[in-house]
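hey so i finally got around to running the thing on that chain from the lab meeting. sorry it took forever, my laptop kept dying and i had to restart like 3 times. anyway pasting the input first so we r on the same page abt which one it is
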Amino acid sequence: MPLTDAQWARIEPLLPNRTPKRGGRWREHRQVIDAIAFKFQNGTQWVHLPDRYGNWRGVYNRLRMWAVDGTWERVFITLVAQADADEDLTWAVSVDSTIVRAHQHAAGAR
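ok and heres what got predicted. didnt touch it at all, straight out
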């Protein structure tokens, strides 16, 4: 599901400049975010992204680059702060058991 115009208006100012340090201009941020959302909503592999999103490597590289440089964290913190200020924040916490680690003896191993 692509971003709505209202969602994009909140996110766009929080993203970095579209001119990378080297090379040409990046693909549109909105299209890349839509591709990332599509990948995680559908559980598809990167190589199976639809052609309308461009080369999957570019999408993956932008996802990783923004994770490393703190862009995703900055976007999340700002959006949560805006939602809290608008009193439009409800919390739902979910823990995926694949990330909860237990010592081997917790499972009865010797």
